[in-house]
Model the fold of this input.
Amino acid sequence: MKKLRTYLPLATLVVLMIVGTFLSDKFLTYSNLMNLLQFSAESALIAVGMTLVILTGGIDLSVGSIVALAAVVSANSQQLGLAGILVLVLLIGAVIGAINGIVLTKFRVEPFMATLATMAIFRAVTLWYTNGGPILGNITPAFSYLANGSVLGIPLPAIYVVVVFIIGYVVLNHTPFGRHVLAIGGGEETSRLFGINVKRVKIWVYIISGVLAALAGMLITSRIGMGEPRSGYQFELVAIAVVIVGGTSLTGGRGTIGGSFIGLLIFAVVMNIMNLLNISSFVQPIVRGLIIILAALAISRMLKSKASAGIA
Amino acid sequence: MDNVILELAGISKQFGNNYALKDINVKIHEGEFHAIVGENGAGKSTLIKILSGVHLPSEGTVHFKGQTVQFLSPYMAQSSGVSTLFQEIQEIPALSVAENIYLGREPRKGTLLQWKALYQEAKELLNNLDIKIDPYKKMEDLSISERKMVEIARAVSFKAELLIMDEPSANLNEDELQVLFKTIAELRKRNVTIIYISHRLREIFAMADRVTVLRDGQHVKTLDIGDTDETRLVQLMIGRELKEYYPVNTETIGDEVLRVQDLHLPGVLHDVNLSLKKREILGIAGLAGSGGNIISKVLFGLVKHYSGQITLDGKPFSPKNPRQCISRGIAFVPEDRKSQGLFLNLSVRANMSITSLKKFRKNGLVNRSKEVKQANELVEQLSVRPKNIRTPIRSLSGGNQQKALIGRWLLDKYKILILEEPTRGVDVGAKMEIYQEINKLLNKDLSLIIVSSELPELLGMCDRILVFSGGTITGELDRSEATEEKIMEYALQEVK
Done:
């Protein structure tokens, strides 16, 4: 029964791939699949951070606003060079993440409320900083290469997707930190009793989420060649959806990075198929909503049958 | 043996104006098995929380191995050699046994976790203790006793010199108990000092060297186990003769009010037959999972998909939901006061009138003055303290909350009042008052069903006791013949 949480998303993905293959002969081609992976890079970064956050039993709504701030700041600081931009972007993510983490641990504000606040604040900061318009500047070729380059015919963003998930997997499964993330989600009080520094782990989780979101923002600017203050809208919703569809429990303590990877691919494949079929992009969020409902339904069914098995 | 490992010197603990513990002085000897007994509310759990680093004492000092110590956290206590098995198992269900044992202290190389070493250490530890549990298994896949064993292994891995066990035998069946006792024996071989809290006096007489009795937060006595017997120990615990403690039902028992025939609930209950008479107090006993606490929920419409006939006052009755059951005259005080019974943020008045608001209706609005008047009368009658009906109910003590909850059902006429665990988490004084109040209800022509895990309460209060095991009734005992031993015998009876 428990395996269902793992295998149901995987089975769904396989079915979707088969459906895609039948609906369009372009679907199962190397270039399309690379395309699909490449355009998932930003979601992938955010989803890995969000997985860790949700595993602790929290939520991070501020990621979309961090994306936007990092996007415009990296467009506006091209003169610093690649390394300089990178440091700046990492700093933005880490600081906002740390604010989230500190507010919700030291002041015991609900994660939802704390990150809702930073989401509003940093979206506004971004719009204020840019006066609402995009930052068009001379994006350097080196910076542009980050999102548009390729190695051995593989687009760099596709590589980022794989790398970030591998790192996420190692962190969650092969470091004490990752196991403590799971432990905290499974029982915060117990974790404290067991001597885990719950506050510190949580703050780090939000810092990681913030940093990954900031990197995603930098990637967007590199890809579209300007700093768009409206980028990252609803990214938090997409990331949460990816994590949940991947089988992670919204109450924390249960879930895997691999699941989120599959969740990400499920959404990417569905969107890709709709693009191939020329379905309006306005319809896509509707489909996304439907997928979330289906996933939630499947999970609640699973929990129900598990609960009744427990009584017997 | 005579080396003092732990000394409590003048320990007191205050919560607000109430003393949970007052001037406790006990010396625990190295390697001994020291039992602590007392009624609920006697201060046992507060004492444990002080020893384990959950609470700091308000006054007094703790000396461990000759040094004055202040445990600021359970982890600190554990690292110093004092481990505690709390009543509720401390675990992360989704993680493996090995991870649960070494959580926070995993073997690591740089930032990486050494999985192999982790499982190796866990395996050796469990082997050493002769505990047969696979360290790769997840905690949630283990039985309760296995999970307790893992907790013990965790304590041992901290090189515990003093192990405090709070009701470790609760919820364990006979086989599981044997496993627990075997492990305890193994610990004693290693000269681990044990402080053991249990309601089951038989265990204490079988294993303990000495016993400390607490009552109302005070230290009554510490005795060598050989110098006392069960009856005398119980007397020390409650401080009075049993007879005074429980009022006797002097009402004449009337005709049948309720009859349940062939009740089945797939996987939970089967072949349940019972009847309840007017002005009778019927007790329901049974270990966790026996189904005893489910029958009460069936009768209040909280459980669906059952089959069988129920008749109430001679008319067929099929409970569907609480609203319908209330209108048929069934009242219910649930086992979990905080989450199922109370509206914590509302006043005492609102908590009492909530089920009877219809009674106070006037022109479509609630007649506040009538509601206030009746609530005041109830508070007076049940001696709920403080006597102010505007107090938020969350600030009342457990006993007073429970009285208000019972009061809720006195605003209207009911036929049957079901009480689940009526005195859970209630101090001794309030307990007696609750028993008195319950008894007074009988002259209102009510019939009572008491579901309780506290045997003395059932024995003291009930005219008749039904014992559940494996989802059905395995025994029925009349007041005159009921004893703890007989109840336990039925409760442990195997049912296919």
Notes: DSSP finds 14 helices and two strands in chain A. The radius of gyration of chain A is 20 Å. The beta strands of chain A are 150-151, 154-155.
